[in-house]
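Session log. Operator J.P. requested a structure for one protein chain; no other inputs attached. Running the standard single-chain path with token output.
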Amino acid sequence: MDGGYRGSDFAHWIIDVFRCIVEVVLRPLENKGFTLLPKPWVV
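Structure written below.
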């Protein structure tokens, strides 16, 4: 679901509007179903 927020357009918009850097953590492609991510959300 969060993979939809990747891409340079989104990253540049976040930098321009919020003056922050965003890092999207994706599930490894070889894993199917639920996968525990190292850092799902950090604020």
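Operator note: The chain has one helix and no strands.
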